[in-house]
Amino acid sequence: MVSLLRKDLSVRMAPKVYKNLIGGEWVETRSKRTHENTNPADTRDVIGVFPHSDASDVEAAVAAAKKAFESWRLVPAPKRADVLFRAARIMEERKEQYAKDMTREMGKVLKETRGDVQEAIDTLYFMAGEGRRLYGFTTPSELPNKAAMAVRMPVGVCGMITPWNFPMAIPSWKLLPAIVCGNTCVIKPAEDTPLSTLNLVQSLIEAGLPKGVINIVFGSGKDVGTPIVQHPDVRAISFTGSSEVGRLIGTMAAEQYKPCSLEMGGKNAIIVLDDANIDLTVDGVLWGAFGTTGQRCTATSRVIATKKVYEQLADKVAARAKKLKIGSGLDESVDVGPQINRSQVETTETYVGIGKKEGAKVLIGGNRLAAGGYKHGFFYEPTVFVGVKNNMRIAQEEIFGPVVSMIQADSLEQAIDYSNSVVYGLSTAIYTKDINKAYRAMRDLYAGITYVNAPTIGAEAHLPFGGVKATGNGHREGGWEVYEFYSETKVCYVDYSGRLQRAQMDTYDV
Ligand code: ADP
User: What is the pTM of this model?
Assistant: First the structure.
C-alpha cells in the first residue's frame, strides 16, 4: 500500500525544469516554449522539461561567449587545462549517476552509458595534457638576425551541434579541445538527450570554468542549430549527425568562410574470410550490429562473408541474436535497449519492409515490439537479413537500427569492392588469420577506420576519429589532429637586425 502510494506520488511529481546556460547563469528561454525529455524505454517517465529556445537565445549565448573569449584566450593554456583535470576527477565520482541519467534519456544499456561517461573522462585527461603541449614550430629565417615561428591562435567562438547517440562523449570531443585551445563555445545538444551535455558542463563549472566559456542553448536544429551556424560571430562549426543535415550545415558555413567539421553517417561492413575464427567473429558481429541498438555511426550494418563461411556464420549469429534480452537499459540483465524515438523505430520498420520487398530473407527478428512491457517504448527486435545483394537498399543505405544485412562475396577483392561501394566511408573490419590479407584490407578499404579481428565499433579518445566521402569533410575528432581544427596557425617573424630586410631579395644581394 505504502509503495503504491509512493509510486503514484512519483508519477504525479512535477519533472525538473531546466534552463539554458548563458554567460554562467541558468536562464529561461526567451521563447517561453519548452519540451519534455522522456525515457525511450517508457515515455511516461519524464526526465525533465527543457527549453525549446530560439534565435534570440542564441544571440545572447554568442554575445556571452564573445565576451568571455577576451579573457579566456589570455589564460595560460596549462591553467585552462587544470579545469579539465579537476572536472575529470569530479566526473569519476559521478560516473554512476551520469550513466543512469544517460540510460534514462537515451535508452542504451548501463554498461554502455558507463562507457560513454568514461570516454568523456578519458577525453578530459587527454585534452588536459595538451595544455602543456599545444606545440608550434620554429624554423630558421632566410635572413640574418631574424626569427621565424608558427604558433597556435584560438579561433574565437565555436558553435557545436551534437546528436543523441553519444550524448556525453561527442560533446566532450568538441568542447574540450576547443576550450583547451582558448576558444569559447555555444553548444546545442540533441533534443532527445539534453541532460548528459548539461552534466558534463556542470562538472566543468564546478571545476572552475569561468562564466561564458561554455554556453548551452537547448532546442531544435532549425530554431537553435541554424542560428548558431549562421551567426557571424561564431567562427567555427563542429557538427555530428546525419549526412543530410551535415550538407546543409556545411553549405551555410561555407557562405561565411567558416571552418566546419562534419562527422556524419556510415554503412559499415565486417568482412569475414573463410579462415576466420568463427566464434570470435560471431561475438564481434553481435556487438557491432546490436550494441547501442545499432544506433552508432560506426555500427556494423553489413557483414560481407566469403562462401564457405557464410551460412554457418549466419546461423550462429541468428542463434545468438535470438538470446539477446531486450528491455529497459536500466535493467542490468538487458542486452539491447530501445531505439531513441518513434521516428527512429519507424525508420527501422520501413527498412525491414524494403528489405523484404527487395527479396532478402529475414533470418531472425523483423518485428517491432509494442505489447506488454514494451508498450510505452520504442523497441525493435535484433534483425538479421540473409540473401542480401550488394545493390539492395538495405545493403547501401544507413538504417541506424538493430538490423544487419549479410552479403556473400566470392573473394577478398570482391568483399573489399562491396565494402567500398557505399556512399559512406567511416568504419570497416576484417576477420581473418591471414596477415597478408589483413594488410591488403587495411590498404584497400577506403574508410577512416579499419579494425582487424574486431568489430567496426570501439573508438579510443586519443586516436583521430572520422571518415571519408559522405561521412566527413576531411577533419578528424579526437587524437592529435583535432587541435588543427580548434586553432589557427599564426606565423610570427621577429627581425632583430635593426635594419629593413627584404625577403627573397636581400638574402641574395649580400
Ligand atoms: P540524427 O538522425 O542523429 O538525429 P540529425 O542530423 O537529424 O541526426 O541531428 C543531429 C543534430 O543536428 C541534432 O542536434 C539536431 O537538432 C541538429 N539539426 C537538425 N537539423 C538541423 C538544421 N537544419 N540546422 C542545424 N542543426 C540541425
Answer: 0.96
Please indicate, yes or no, whether residues 204 and 293 belong to a single structural domain of this protein: no
How far, in Å, is the centroid of ligand 1 from the Cα of 56? 19
Could you confirm whether 263 is annotated as catalytic? yes
| Distance from C-alpha of 313 to C-alpha of 387, rounded to nearest angstrom | 13
Q: How many domains does one find in the chain?
A: 2
Check: CB of residue 129 under 8 Å from CB of residue 122: no
Same domain, 232 and 361: no
Query: Block means of pLDDT (10 residues each) for the chain, length 510 residues?
Result: 41 85 98 97 98 98 99 98 98 98 98 98 98 97 96 98 98 98 98 98 98 98 98 98 98 98 98 98 98 98 98 98 98 98 98 98 98 97 98 98 98 98 98 98 98 96 97 96 97 97 78
How many CB atoms are closer than 10 A to CB 502? 9
Tell me the three cell numbers of residue 346. Answer: 519507424
Atom index in ligand 1 nearest the CA of residue 190 equals 14
Statement to judge: residues 259 and 272 lie in one domain: no
327 in contact with ligand 1, CB cutoff 6 A: no
Q: Which of these is catalytic: 158, 181, 260, 297?
A: 297
Residues 191 and 317 in one domain: no
Mutate to test the pocket of ligand 1, among 245, 258, 293, 342 (most ligand atoms within 8 A of CB): 245
Domain membership of residue 477 as a residue range? 16-264+472-490
Which region holds residue 424: left if phi is over 0, alpha if psi is between -120 and 50, else beta?
beta
